[in-house]
Design goal:
This protein has helices spanning 10-28, 32-36, 49-52, 60-81, 83-104, 115-128, 145-158, 164-183; strands at residues 133-136, 139-144. It is mainly α. A two-stranded antiparallel ribbon has the order 1-2. 39% of the residues are buried.
Protein backbone atom coordinates (compact mmCIF):
# COMPACT_ATOMS: atom_id res chain seq x y z
CA UNK A 1 0.00 0.00 0.00
CA UNK A 2 1.34 3.39 -0.89
CA UNK A 3 0.31 6.70 0.54
CA UNK A 4 1.07 9.99 -1.07
CA UNK A 5 1.10 13.07 1.04
CA UNK A 6 2.64 16.48 0.80
CA UNK A 7 6.03 16.62 2.45
CA UNK A 8 7.72 19.78 3.60
CA UNK A 9 11.30 19.58 2.36
CA UNK A 10 12.42 22.99 3.62
CA UNK A 11 15.16 21.61 5.87
CA UNK A 12 16.45 19.38 3.08
CA UNK A 13 16.51 22.19 0.53
CA UNK A 14 18.19 24.49 3.07
CA UNK A 15 20.99 21.95 3.61
CA UNK A 16 21.46 21.48 -0.13
CA UNK A 17 21.51 25.27 -0.70
CA UNK A 18 24.01 25.75 2.13
CA UNK A 19 26.31 23.08 0.69
CA UNK A 20 26.11 24.61 -2.80
CA UNK A 21 26.71 28.15 -1.47
CA UNK A 22 29.78 27.06 0.49
CA UNK A 23 31.03 25.13 -2.54
CA UNK A 24 30.78 28.25 -4.71
CA UNK A 25 32.52 30.35 -2.06
CA UNK A 26 35.37 27.84 -1.78
CA UNK A 27 35.71 27.77 -5.56
CA UNK A 28 36.46 31.48 -5.43
CA UNK A 29 38.58 31.33 -2.25
CA UNK A 30 40.26 27.89 -2.23
CA UNK A 31 42.11 28.62 1.03
CA UNK A 32 38.77 28.50 2.88
CA UNK A 33 38.76 24.72 2.41
CA UNK A 34 41.57 24.51 4.96
CA UNK A 35 39.83 27.00 7.27
CA UNK A 36 36.53 25.08 7.21
CA UNK A 37 37.78 21.53 6.57
CA UNK A 38 38.47 19.08 9.38
CA UNK A 39 42.17 18.72 10.12
CA UNK A 40 42.41 16.65 13.32
CA UNK A 41 45.62 18.36 14.47
CA UNK A 42 43.87 21.75 14.34
CA UNK A 43 40.62 20.79 16.07
CA UNK A 44 41.58 22.23 19.48
CA UNK A 45 42.44 25.62 17.90
CA UNK A 46 39.52 25.61 15.42
CA UNK A 47 36.61 23.76 17.10
CA UNK A 48 34.07 24.83 14.43
CA UNK A 49 35.69 22.53 11.87
CA UNK A 50 34.00 19.48 13.43
CA UNK A 51 30.74 20.88 11.93
CA UNK A 52 31.81 23.21 9.11
CA UNK A 53 33.65 20.43 7.27
CA UNK A 54 30.28 18.74 6.59
CA UNK A 55 29.41 21.57 4.19
CA UNK A 56 32.68 21.82 2.23
CA UNK A 57 33.28 19.88 -0.98
CA UNK A 58 36.39 19.61 -3.10
CA UNK A 59 35.05 19.14 -6.62
CA UNK A 60 31.91 19.32 -8.71
CA UNK A 61 31.64 15.51 -8.67
CA UNK A 62 32.04 15.41 -4.89
CA UNK A 63 29.20 17.85 -4.25
CA UNK A 64 27.03 16.48 -7.06
CA UNK A 65 27.13 12.90 -5.77
CA UNK A 66 26.62 13.98 -2.15
CA UNK A 67 23.72 16.34 -2.95
CA UNK A 68 21.91 13.83 -5.19
CA UNK A 69 22.27 11.23 -2.43
CA UNK A 70 21.21 13.74 0.21
CA UNK A 71 18.11 14.68 -1.78
CA UNK A 72 16.85 11.15 -2.41
CA UNK A 73 17.77 9.65 0.96
CA UNK A 74 16.74 12.78 2.85
CA UNK A 75 13.34 13.13 1.20
CA UNK A 76 12.68 9.44 1.85
CA UNK A 77 13.72 9.71 5.51
CA UNK A 78 11.63 12.85 6.04
CA UNK A 79 8.56 10.94 4.84
CA UNK A 80 9.44 7.93 6.99
CA UNK A 81 10.53 9.58 10.24
CA UNK A 82 9.85 13.31 10.02
CA UNK A 83 11.92 16.42 9.53
CA UNK A 84 13.27 16.61 13.09
CA UNK A 85 14.51 13.02 12.97
CA UNK A 86 16.05 13.66 9.54
CA UNK A 87 17.96 16.67 10.86
CA UNK A 88 19.08 14.80 13.98
CA UNK A 89 20.39 11.85 11.94
CA UNK A 90 22.07 14.15 9.43
CA UNK A 91 23.95 16.21 12.02
CA UNK A 92 24.68 13.41 14.49
CA UNK A 93 25.82 11.16 11.63
CA UNK A 94 28.09 13.89 10.31
CA UNK A 95 29.52 14.43 13.80
CA UNK A 96 30.00 10.68 14.35
CA UNK A 97 31.80 10.43 11.03
CA UNK A 98 34.00 13.39 11.87
CA UNK A 99 34.81 12.01 15.30
CA UNK A 100 35.90 8.71 13.78
CA UNK A 101 37.94 10.68 11.22
CA UNK A 102 39.67 12.57 14.05
CA UNK A 103 40.41 9.32 15.89
CA UNK A 104 41.62 7.22 12.94
CA UNK A 105 42.87 9.48 10.14
CA UNK A 106 46.26 11.11 9.72
CA UNK A 107 46.15 14.12 12.08
CA UNK A 108 47.45 16.41 9.32
CA UNK A 109 45.00 15.31 6.62
CA UNK A 110 41.92 17.41 5.90
CA UNK A 111 38.49 15.83 5.65
CA UNK A 112 35.62 17.55 3.87
CA UNK A 113 32.14 16.66 2.67
CA UNK A 114 28.68 15.60 3.73
CA UNK A 115 29.38 11.91 3.12
CA UNK A 116 29.35 10.89 6.78
CA UNK A 117 25.94 12.52 7.23
CA UNK A 118 24.66 10.98 3.99
CA UNK A 119 25.87 7.53 5.07
CA UNK A 120 23.96 8.05 8.34
CA UNK A 121 20.75 8.64 6.37
CA UNK A 122 21.47 5.56 4.26
CA UNK A 123 22.20 3.45 7.33
CA UNK A 124 18.95 4.44 9.04
CA UNK A 125 16.94 3.67 5.92
CA UNK A 126 18.82 0.39 5.35
CA UNK A 127 17.47 -0.81 8.70
CA UNK A 128 14.00 0.71 8.36
CA UNK A 129 13.30 -0.33 4.74
CA UNK A 130 16.20 -2.57 3.67
CA UNK A 131 14.61 -3.95 0.52
CA UNK A 132 13.47 -0.69 -1.03
CA UNK A 133 14.90 -0.65 -4.58
CA UNK A 134 17.43 2.07 -5.39
CA UNK A 135 19.69 2.98 -8.27
CA UNK A 136 23.37 3.69 -7.78
CA UNK A 137 24.64 6.13 -10.41
CA UNK A 138 27.11 3.78 -12.08
CA UNK A 139 25.00 0.59 -11.87
CA UNK A 140 21.98 0.71 -14.21
CA UNK A 141 19.82 -1.86 -12.38
CA UNK A 142 17.79 -1.37 -9.19
CA UNK A 143 19.06 -3.12 -6.09
CA UNK A 144 17.93 -3.34 -2.45
CA UNK A 145 19.10 -0.36 -0.41
CA UNK A 146 21.14 -2.50 2.00
CA UNK A 147 23.20 -3.89 -0.90
CA UNK A 148 23.79 -0.40 -2.31
CA UNK A 149 25.02 0.78 1.10
CA UNK A 150 27.48 -2.13 1.33
CA UNK A 151 28.77 -1.47 -2.20
CA UNK A 152 29.28 2.24 -1.54
CA UNK A 153 31.00 1.60 1.79
CA UNK A 154 33.30 -0.96 0.17
CA UNK A 155 34.24 1.58 -2.51
CA UNK A 156 35.26 3.95 0.31
CA UNK A 157 38.03 1.55 1.28
CA UNK A 158 39.22 0.91 -2.28
CA UNK A 159 40.12 4.43 -3.40
CA UNK A 160 42.67 6.74 -1.84
CA UNK A 161 41.55 10.24 -0.93
CA UNK A 162 38.20 9.08 0.45
CA UNK A 163 37.56 9.56 4.17
CA UNK A 164 36.36 6.01 4.85
CA UNK A 165 36.48 6.85 8.56
CA UNK A 166 33.73 9.46 8.11
CA UNK A 167 31.66 7.10 5.96
CA UNK A 168 31.94 4.31 8.53
CA UNK A 169 31.20 6.59 11.51
CA UNK A 170 28.12 8.06 9.83
CA UNK A 171 26.89 4.63 8.76
CA UNK A 172 27.24 3.20 12.27
CA UNK A 173 25.24 6.06 13.76
CA UNK A 174 22.60 5.65 11.04
CA UNK A 175 22.28 1.93 11.73
CA UNK A 176 21.69 2.62 15.43
CA UNK A 177 19.12 5.31 14.56
CA UNK A 178 17.38 2.88 12.20
CA UNK A 179 17.18 0.30 14.98
CA UNK A 180 15.65 2.88 17.30
CA UNK A 181 13.02 3.77 14.70
CA UNK A 182 12.35 0.10 14.01
CA UNK A 183 11.81 -0.58 17.73
CA UNK A 184 9.15 2.10 17.77
CA UNK A 185 7.31 -0.28 15.43
CA UNK A 186 6.17 2.47 13.14
CA UNK A 187 4.49 1.36 9.96
CA UNK A 188 6.12 2.68 6.80
CA UNK A 189 4.09 2.98 3.64
CA UNK A 190 6.13 3.37 0.47
Amino acid sequence: MRTYRAVNLNALWFLIALNVAIFIITLVRRELIYFLGLTPALLSQQPWIIVSSMFVHGSIWHILFNMISLYFLGSFLIRAAGEKSFLAIFFLGGLAGNILFVLLANPFSTGIGASGAVFALAGALAIMVPRVPVFVLFIPIPMPLWIAVIILLALSFLFSGIAWEAHLGGLLLGLVAGLIFRRRRRIYYF
